[in-house]
Write a structure and sequence with these properties.
Elements: H1 5-9, E1 15-17, E2 30-33, H2 38-47, H3 55-65, E3 66-70, E4 73-74, E5 78-79, H4 92-106, H5 110-128, H6 137-142, E6 157-159, E7 165-166, E8 178-180, E9 184-185, E10 193-194, H7 204-218, H8 233-264
Antiparallel strand pairs: 1-2, 2-3, 4-5, 6-7, 6-8, 9-10
Helix pairs in contact: 2-3, 3-4, 5-7, 5-8, 7-8
Bound molecules: zinc ion (ZN) (2 copies).
Amino acid sequence: MAQSLTLKLDPDTIYPYVCEVEREKDNHTTFFLKSLNILQYRICEELFSDDVNVGEYGLKVLEYGLIGWDNFAWDDVEVIPFDLCNIGTIPYSNQLELFNNIISLSEVDSDLIDEMIYIVKWSDWLSKSKNPDQWTCEYCAEKKLANTRNCDGSRTFSCKSCDAFCSDDVCPKCNGRANLVLKYRFSNKVNDFVTKCPVSLVKTRAIKLVNLVNYIDHTKSLPMVGGALEQSHFYYMARTVVLSEQNSLMKDELDKMKKDVDKKK
Ligand SMILES: [Zn+2]
Ligand SMILES: [Zn+2]
């Protein structure tokens, strides 16, 4: 399910959903799902246990996140009206599927988290860069740097012996050692580097979400009407990711500044 990010900030957005086994059927059941708000997510989390069964936790998630269904019938004959008491009539595998979807609507997935952290790091870096223009990817194309900067990710390593490009540090052609074509460091921390043109790694959906979080935070507003706990858990999670990364960068910068001042004394 792909949705607009702004709609995902609204805990009242309704998502129609058809279970996988029914997608080919003409008279399939459509379920209507909602993501969890912060309070609901917390209540559910408290019920969470490592049980294989979804159990109480799962039922609570369905209770909050399943808000209706259309065309649901027992044995395709007897129509079952929407009522949470009737959840037990949904086949267990479908219950699990609905549950998983409600949870994924309520969370920021790990890819998006990585993309957002990258945007925060990269914009922090750019804000200190003496020559930010050199990073526009059009510049790569114009100056014919797209290959040396590995813009498309197809030239991560190059073989020392035969000059072939490969995706691993061992050349598949001659088994020779291959070196990284580009290693661009953000800091001296372990693994704090990229091996592709930094601009080519920027994802627009992550820029959008980081901007939204910053805007909401600077204007001290909330994304939706209602109290803080009534906001979508998705927003809360995105906010936590952005602010904690920004805070840690700021902290590092101030620590470095203090050290430099101490040295001068
Ligand atoms: Zn580039
Ligand atoms: Zn080789």
